[in-house]
């Protein structure tokens, strides 16, 4: 049996966007219990793909916004793109955020209000802290790495 999970997003403009996340192939029937449901590798890959697509859509929407300068009130224009890697509960995602510049006063911004040291989501940070309180940090980090890594691990 073949499965193709599809992620469908509806934009503010009412347009639909869809993405076939991955192809899952499972044997028919329940002859072997090992063939029941998704494997861990498939589940990790599925979550990682969904997370990447949701983040990409959020980043695209953000890039389409044209913010106003807080200093002079004029509209920013995009002067380039800056790549960011963010660790999330479902793996690392990569986004390109616009570098915004104001033609009026010359100031620049990214349009995001993240702390400058931000490299991971608060949800991941909270889970890491909780696990580290229950077990040694190295064991907690290894556990999270095992759960997050996509592929055959």
Low-confidence stretches: none
User: What is the first-to-last residue Cα distance?
Assistant: 24 Å
Number of strands: 7
Radius of gyration (Å): 20 Å
Order of helices and strands: EEEEHEEEHH
Strand order of the largest sheet: 5-6-7
Structural class: alpha+beta
Give the CA-based shape. Answer: flat
Count of DSSP helices? 3
Question: What average pLDDT do the residues reach?
Answer: 84
Main sheet overview: 3 strands, antiparallel
- Give the DSSP E fraction (strand runs of 2 or more residues): 25-35%
State the helicity in percent bands. Answer: 25-40%
Quick rundown:
It contains 3 helices and 7 strands; from the N terminus they run E-E-E-E-H-E-E-E-H-H. It is of the alpha+beta class and 153 residues long.
Task: Provide a descriptive summary of the structure in words.
The structure is a single chain. Helices cover 33% and strands 27% of the residues. The protein has 153 residues and is α+β, with helices and mostly antiparallel strands. Helix 2 (122-134) crosses helix 3. The chain starts with a strand and ends in a 5-residue tail after the last helix.
């Amino acid at each position: 049996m073949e499965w193709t999970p599809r992620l469908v997003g509806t934009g503010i403009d009412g347009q639909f966007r869809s993405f076939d996340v991955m192809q899952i192939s499972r044997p028919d029937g329940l002859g072997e219990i090992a063939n029941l449901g998704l494997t861990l590798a498939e589940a990790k890959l599925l979550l990682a793909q969904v997370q990447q697509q949701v983040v990409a859509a959020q980043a695209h929407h953000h890039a389409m916004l044209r913010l106003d300068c807080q200093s002079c009130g004029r509209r920013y224009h995009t002067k380039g793109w800056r790549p960011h890697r963010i660790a999330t509960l479902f793996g690392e995602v990569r986004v390109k955020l616009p570098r915004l510049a104001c033609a009026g006063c010359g100031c620049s911004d990214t349009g995001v209000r993240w702390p400058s040291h931000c490299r991971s989501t608060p949800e991941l940070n909270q889970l890491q802290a909780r696990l580290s309180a229950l077990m040694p940090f190295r064991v907690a980090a290894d556990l999270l790495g095992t759960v997050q890594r996509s592929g055959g691990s």
